[in-house]
Design brief:
- The structure is a homodimer.
- Chain A is mainly α.
- Chain A contains 6 helices and 2 strands, in the order ααββαααα.
- The first copy, chain A, is elongated and about 70 Å long.
- The C terminus of chain A is likely disordered.
- Chains A and B meet through helix 3, helix 5 and helix 6 of A and helix 3, helix 5 and helix 6 of B.
- Chain A binds a DNA duplex through helix 2.
Chain lengths: ~140, ~140
DNA sequence: GTACTTCCTGTAGCCACTACAGGAGCAAGA
DNA sequence: TCTTGCTCCTGTAGTGGCTACAGGAAGTAC
């Protein structure tokens, strides 16, 4: 059983974030020492590491909670996990696509900027009415 | 001079968002009718539209405020705008790259998932220690 | 005993909105 | 004139996923 600082080091999750995860119910409340300090087992560290990996992959916390509810039960989890992962992948693809479009728009805007003249054509373009219909979705 | 609902329609900015922009100082406080309702001029609508376009391009609000402080003055704005736009472009590129890496990691994880067996190899991988070093940055 | 570090709880801040409560004004029709 | 329905007002709280800080208590090393 180790304290939260060590748990943070071993899991890669920030101390404040560990407490936040506990508060919102991502990980269960750990045991406490007689003085009231949190004590973590090896399993709990592993769970924290799992959460961190999922977060690094961009999964939102409610999805991670679903994942965690699946671990332990052997049957029927794979299909649902796959669906959730595919949905997430689709969202990532959409984000990439949107960012690429945004990148294009920005490049088009700023490439007129390098002629060294005083007035900024990019700001002008942003001010004019003709621009801005192509880039619309959320990133 | 038009009311906030019309201003919202003509600028494409949500009513609540217009009030939010006013509150945080992105756009100046508009005039009011005798009954206390906001009244917007053509120029103010144009400014709202400018803010919307910048937001659609992903510029954060402080940058947009800098842009707005440049409009009106003719000299020296282009170079600074260009720098800000380039920085923003670099950030977009970094995001795209990170998402692409994330996408790869997710694909690698989930492609073992489609064999129809009961236990989920993806969750297993996420639980094991060997995975997760390649994907680390913020999106 | 003292200095230093780690830990505790609780609250507030970040970003860029969005939603809602509870009320007031305004325009059109009966 | 009255009612209906729409728009608008202010103020506050919620979103996601943390992060930071205040003010204190406990543990450890010398």
């Amino acid at each position: 059983m180790i304290a939260i600082g060590q748990a943070s080091q071993q899991s890669g999750v920030n101390i404040e974030t560990i407490r936040y995860y506990e508060r919102v119910g991502v990980v269960p409340k750990p045991g406490r020492s007689t003085a009231g300090r949190r004590l973590y087992s090896v399993d709990e560290i592993a769970k924290l590491r799992f959460v961190k990996r999922c977060r690094d992959l961009g999964f939102p916390i409610p999805i991670i909670q679903t994942f965690l509810s699946f671990t332990g039960q052997e049957d029927r989890s794979c299909g649902e996990v796959e669906t959730l992962a595919e949905d997430h992948l689709a969202q990532i693809d959409a984000k990439i696509e949107n960012l690429a479009r945004l990148r294009e728009a920005l490049l088009n805007l700023s490439k007129n900027c390098d002629d060294g003249t005083a007035a900024c054509s990019m700001l002008d373009s942003l001010m004019r009415d003709s621009f801005g219909e192509a880039v619309a979705q959320k990133s």
